[in-house]
Write a structure and sequence with these properties.
By secondary structure, this protein is of the alpha/beta class. The protein has helices at about 15-20, 65-75, 100-105, 125-130, 175-195, 205-215, 235-250, 305-315, 330-340, 360-370, 380-395, 405-410, 435-445, 460-470, 470-475; strands spanning about 1-5, 5-10, 35, 40-45, 85, 115, 120-125, 145-150, 155-160, 195-205, 225-230, 260-265, 320-325, 355, 375, 415, 495, 515-520, 520-525.
Length: about 525
Amino acid sequence: MALQGERILQLGTDDEILKTKGARTQVIDLRGRLVLPGLIDSHVHPGAAMTEFDHPIPEMETIQQVLDYLKARAGVLKEGEWIQLSQVFITRLREQRYPTRAELDRVAPKHPLVFATGPDASLNSLALQLSGIDRNFKITDGGPGHIEKDADGEPTGILRSCTRVIKSKASGKNPSEEDYYRRTLQLFKDYNSIGLTTVADRSADVVSIGRYQKMRDQGDLTVRLSISQNIATLGAIEKIQETIRDVAKNPLCQGDSMLRIIGIKTFLDGGMLTGSAYMREPWGVSDIYAITDPSYRGVLFIPRERLLPIVRTAIESGLQFTAHSVGDGAVHTLLDVYEEISQAKPVRQTRPCITHSNFMSKEAVEKAAKLGVVLDIQPAWLYLDTRTLVKQFGYDRLRYFQPLKSIFEAGVMVGGGSDHMQKIGSLRSINPYNPFLGMWVAITRKSKWYEGQLHPEEALTREQAIRFYTKNNAYLLFRENDIGSLEPGKLADFVVLDTDLLTCPEDEIAKTQVLHTYLNGKLVYQKNN
């Protein structure tokens, strides 16, 4: 492969490429190492860099480890200061349950305490009291959610899809803008170390976007950034539509090779990790998720009649619309909205997206193919959560859980992401953002603490798994003309690996190490010997 400036000049045999050599050409012999296009993560949250700004947070796999951590925090913080722990998901704890109100009271009786998992949480008594949540409390802001209560009508401490009603206050050190800038760049360098050259921030706010612009302008960016700007969906529809149109007017929607706004992101349902994903059939009574209502189907944040004008406005504005849609009920709701809009105008050109799209159906895959809908899926969830999901739903109901082979065969463009939410470190993070782990999961359908494979008939081939993190993601992010494959004229983003992913033993795939990462033909990471 010959490079010239930022782009690939030519590919061919050694003799063909060496003919392009000039007096100032640098020649590098990789001695047979595998070279891939720069890897792409279709879904990250770079705010993850700030998780441990104040103090390190250990890995927690049991309720006791959670309680030990919370007790230690109570010993450090002043009496009355809030203790908050987020995104330690109950599906990933050995006991597969929330810590109880009594357990939280015992380790921190004099501190209001919140154990939050996305929009759901478990609170201790003091946190409930300070938030005004008692047996008579009602949600009055028009938003979704409910308060779990015991047989006597008292709050159990578990809140569903309404952590917004908690009146918590931040404790510990407050990071400066310089801290945000420095730690975000540290995260981007770590992305480079595992071969990532492009990522999509799938829920960026205005402040983060401004920070990315500064990084680009100062030449500090070492990853390409595609942005889905977060849009709140409570309040007047007209105001929401105005906000969407304002996003479309941002010059960054034209962008450049390093930074571009591609669309907007909203949240359509809850999560499978918290028991609030919106399903077509009831979840079922559950000790794991503390579900007592046999008819409970999860939470749909945006009713269909509100979702329709929001999506239509995004598509008419030329923006890619995507929504956090985990349950099959949410996936079908969004697909139906895309289909209704397409009856007046094709939606394919804006590459409408479904983010997560974990629970699907044969019909959903077919409809996505027909409409030109793209999917943003994270294998880390299959890896970390299969044990709990099989216990909750049974093996058969998970037939179309991340049905990657069916999606590929239907011609739907699907890209691989991580949904990286917290911590720096590709395997210690929540969720792990190591793309080779993601490839291994997509190829094997194996998961942590679970014997066997989850519907191996939906496994990808090795070649498909590579496309999942390269060419397909380039299309999802409107960058297929510049990156995603090694071709003359494309930008010289590529990685050199220590492992041949196409021929190595299957379990070696997840252990792959990156030796070099290049962005625009320049070395941005080199593994130390």
